[in-house]
Amino acid sequence: MKFETTSIRRDDKGRNLHEKTDIDLAYLNDGYNSQRSSGSSNLSTSSSGDSGRRPSTECSEVFKFRPASRNIGRHLSCFGRSSSASDILGDSQSSTLNLLKFQLLFLFSLSVLWSLGLTAYLSLLDPFTPRMNGLQRLTPGLAIRPQPVDPMSSLIKFRHGGSGDWQVLNSRFKEFTKAYGFGTRLGSSEVCNWNTTLTKDFRCHVGPRKWMALDTDIPCTGAEKYGMYHGQPCIIVKMNNVYGWEPVPYYNITEIQELTAMPKRLKGYIKGYWNKHCKGKGAAIEERCPQMRMVWLSCEGETAADEENMGPVHYVPWHGFPGYHYPYLNQQHYLSPVVFIQFRHITPGVLIQVRCKAWARNIEHEERNPRKGGVHFEIQMD
Residue 134 pLDDT more than 90? Predict the structure, then answer.
């Protein structure tokens, strides 16, 4: 049986030419059957020798789309000889498996190299000493506790009395002072004196027993709600830890009296302190008195109105921070010394701006930056 097909092509001048072709189906069937039988025998022979062989180059060329009618028989022959889709499309499963194996091997090798590099890098670091140099030249600032309820504000605001809202601040007081309790800090500590020099192996003991002031009925203790219940609030002031920093104290009382920036109230206190511990004990002691190894602390109102509304400030247990607690060398379980400041005659309902400063020879201050060598906060008691 024959049938006629017509194809259209263009000549060199762009004109359409119609060509007719007669196709004999009997001839195609005979060629297809003979090639299929020969292909099956070849397939069985090749499968016994090499089952994973890829399809022949001849069939790969045939599978390319060619619209010419003379290729129909070869197409049918190759499809007849192909035993599976992998022979026609290629061994895609094995290729995917090989790619997956390569990816896994690459990631494993990369992880091993990264781990070895990180281990070598960490082995060169001291777990207690920072790599940066020049930290001793930094000026430490101060910090207050408890922190304000609003983390974006420096205002400590509460209402005192039985119907007050001071409970949140009181809980923060307890949370901070919990580390200073007896038996709550691991490791050993030593009772230091004015001649103690700290090393990386030990820290000085900070005893909470000295926190109780004996000149008032409302000390800064948890039993008295840190003065907030009775309208005499307390604030904790501490120095920020700077690795390797050690204060250079003012040993000369004459030098202290000549400091124009230091508050007169603090100068008067230091003068009485020097007369009590240093005066009349020899020229060497008067020139370099061990008890003068202090970082002094002063807290004042920003304006005259603030000074009047806040009243006198009381300091417990010291009027500063003893110098034997420094330098901070990242000692294990290190505790910073703290100072409680108490406002015993604060005016209710008035916002008061307070600025505290630490005083030593190597502590700098800036008028426009209260955080350098100090701290600024506001307090309002309703």
Answer: no
